[in-house]
Amino acid sequence: MHSFSHTKFIQNLEQQIEFKSISSVLLAVSYGQDSLCLLKLFLDLRTTFQFKLGVIHIDHQWRNDTVNSTKHLINIIGKFDISSYIYQLNPYSYSEIEFRDLRYQICLDTAKAHSYHYVATAHTATDKAETCIRNLFHSRNFDGLNSLLWLRRVSMSVQILRPLLNFTRAEIKWFCHYYILPIWFDYTNIYYKNHRNRLRHEIIPYVKHYYDTNLETQISRLLDNTYLDSEYLRQSTLKTYLTIRHKSFIALNHTMLLQQHKALQGRVLHLFFLHNTHVSISRLFLRRIVMKVQKNRKSTLRYHNLNINHNNNWLYLS
């Protein structure tokens, strides 16, 4: 029997992801409610859509019960004819950021090694809202607000797929209760020393209670709209950079740069330095460069070990 969640899931595959091209999917799951919801939806639909499915789980061993919870997940997977790939990492060998990067790389390497074209994660609208609010404290522009996209190509053969990105936590909870899914409780999710947990259990419920009960939906719409704007700016930045860079030397035609909109000037300069030096220049320093160039006098600026020079037409490094 299919629920409204199945219908919504199919609509996501059809409208957001173009499911006709999906043939093999590696599900990156844990034992929580989001992951088990993703697993059941794909299992229920694999006969209809002829998916080749696999499951990958990485045990981070940050909790005392991770071995038992991994066994619990293996027992669930074992009931179905589905390939599984289980990894275990030593928590004392990696920081949280290093572990996140390593987990990401393991998923991609496994997908490539076993010919999966997609890696599906269980990110939801609630995750999208939480990520947006967290990024508000760190990002300097709209580009950094939305890091969770429906579909993102990460290599020539593998794409990251997020088919639950418009499911709220309430919908996921209902689905798990309705189908009596065997969720394993992760007690670290209630530790408030983790900033995301404090955001999830205090800030977001407060905003939803006093300001907007549809917070996740509103943030999701905002991010979808700003993503199109940001994508247009990114493409315009790349096009402008390729047009005004020197064909042989590490240089930019600053006369042509100043003819662009101010929104593009800083972005093109940032791309110029990132592409040629792998250095991310601060926005404040990029403004200094533009101001120097506008005065149209030969000068040199220094940024760490980089000498940034400009003459009549060209901005170049030495």
TrEMBL record:
It is an enzyme of class 6 (ligase). It is found in: Plastid, Chloroplast. Residues 25-202 form the tRNA(Ile)-lysidine/2-thiocytidine synthase N-terminal domain. GO terms for cellular component: chloroplast. Its EC number is 6.3.4.19. One of its GO terms (molecular function) is tRNA(Ile)-lysidine synthase activity. This is tRNA(Ile)-lysidine synthase, chloroplastic. The gene is tilS.
